[in-house]
Amino acid sequence: MRSLLWSAVALAAGLVLTPLPPAAADDDIGGVSCLSGTLQLRYTPGLTFTEKTIRVRGTGDLSSCQSAKHPGITRGVVRVRATVTGRCPGPIDPASAKVTITWNDGTRSTITESAFSRVGKALHVEGDVAAGAFKGGVAHADGRATGNLIAAAAACLTGGFTRSSVVVERFSVDA
After folding, report:
1. 87: pLDDT strictly greater than 90
2. What angle do CA 25, 29, 34 make, to 5 degrees?
3. Where does the signal peptide begin and end (predicted)?
4. Torsion 70-73-79-82 (CA) sign
5. Following DSSP, what letter does each residue of 18-79 receive, concatenated?
6. How many CB atoms lie within 10 A of CB 38?
7. Helices H, strands E: what count in the chain?
8. What is the per-residue pLDDT across 137-174, written as a single tens digit (0 to 9) for each?
9. What is the mean pLDDT of residues 38-44?
10. Beta bridge partners of 124
11. Dihedral sign computed on CA atoms, order 123, 13, 112, 99
């Protein structure tokens, strides 16, 4: 299953993957919308031009959030854990992944499936919320890479691409 993580990985590594259709959302889950955020990812071992299994770990935040059903939500902390098989510049194939958002009101959302598309540094993601707040909803995110693709390619040549940053410009879960 592809997770929200794959979009960040694809964006950081310069990959293009074919989107998968997201699951339908429940009518009574409520929704949330966040206007900004960040995501920092680490790859162990670093991506090189040789295909191998890589652990991906990441943390980030979402801010300027609003939800009618959960009015206390204003921000969230994002945690990414995944194992992938890949190389520079790609492809990267998911083996397992989980994205957890801990909202400031104490609730959590777990995203386990997603599809994404990438054009240049711009990225669009859609994913299923599998558990917690907004379960059954479809998460949407738009973001962009903040790093230099030339520097990323150089890292692939000199020991491995080990870190990337993504700016989240919009995140929402459909009600």
Report:
1. no
2. 90
3. 1-24
4. positive
5. ---PPPPPPTTS--EEEEEEEEEEEEEEEE-SS-EEEEEEEEEEEEEEE-SSSTT---EEEE
6. 16
7. 2, 8
8. 999 888 888 888 888 889 999 989 999 888 999 999 98
9. 92
10. 117, 142
11. negative
DSSP 8-state secondary structure symbol assigned to residue 174: -
**Could you identify the residue written with the tokens 């890479």?**
145
Of 66, 117, 126, whose CA–CA distance to 99 is shortest? 126
- Look up tokens 């889950």; give the residue: 29
Phi and psi for 165 in degrees, rounded to 5?
A: -130, 140
Please state, in angstroms and rounded to a whole number, the distance separating the CA atoms of residues 74 and 79. 17
Output the average pLDDT for the chain.
79
Q: Token digits for 143?
A: 């973001």
What are the pLDDT digits (tens) for 93-103?
A: 666 778 899 99
Q: Is the model's pTM score more than 0.90? A: no
Give the mean model confidence (pLDDT) for residues 42-58.
92
